[in-house]
Amino acid sequence: MARVFVITGPSGVGKGTLIRGLMERVAQLELSVSATTRAPRLGERDGVDYHFLTRTEFNTKVNEGAFVEHADYAGRSYGTLRSELERRVRAGTPVVLEIEVQGARQVRAAMPEAVQVFIAPPSLPALRTRLVGRGTDDHNEVERRLMVAEHELKAQPEFAHVVVNDRLDEALERLVAIVTAELD
Questions:
Q1: Can you list the residues of the chain whose pLDDT is less than 50?
Q2: What is the pLDDT of residue 138?
Q3: Residue 78 contacts residue 70 (beta carbons within 8 Å)
């Protein structure tokens, strides 16, 4: 059975950047493409970055049981399509899920063998700086994401692995070490 790696943490903590670095260093990994109801950001492509769905499409898939996990986060819905995960697992390909804390809990319940890694910011002020600095969200969205982040940070003890993303190169080395140890 292929390994499933769940990477979670608050919005803006650098999950995507760390996962890109991880994928470059551990070639056999594949990233599961999540579904979302949020609008694409500049440069994002449907089916590559996310499966962009309308609220109606997303809710239909929820009702059909098409998601391994799904969660609402900062007013948007996100989920991992069962077909995305099962295809890779059946092929024996280790897969990475970049998901929210609610979704990570659902995967833990459904797949206790999945390796779960929580990515944490060095502090809430540092997270605020990152969210504002990336320039993808307005002030209200940043505040909403920070409120959610405060709650999510309390979940760290639930995770077998916690990586603090203070210095990117050090956080990436720690993440790579966790994944390669689990693959060996």
A1: none
A2: 84
A3: yes
The tokens describing 54, both together, are 């309308």
What is the pTM assigned to this prediction?
0.86
Half-sphere CA count of 150, side-chain side, radius 13 A: 7
Closest CA to 182 of 12, 16, 29, 20: 29
Place of tokens 């969200």: 137
Output the pLDDT for position 1. 56
SS3 (DSSP) at 171? helix
Structure confidence by residue, pLDDT tens digits, 37-56: 999 988 999 999 899 999 99
Give the burial class of 99: count Cβ atoms within 10 A of its Cβ; 0-12 exposed, 13-18 middle, 19 or more buried. buried
What torsion do the CA atoms of 141, 143, 147, 149 make, to the nearest 10 degrees? 70
CA angle in degrees (0–180, nearest 5) for 173-48-63: 105
22 class by beta-carbon count within 10 Å (0-12 exposed, 13-18 middle, 19+ buried): buried
Return the ∠ at Cα 170 (arms to 104 and 94), rounded to 5°: 40
The full DSSP string for 53-89 is --HHHHHHHHHHT-EEEEEEETTEEEEEEHHHHHHHH
Alpha-carbon span 97 to 79, nearest angstrom? 10
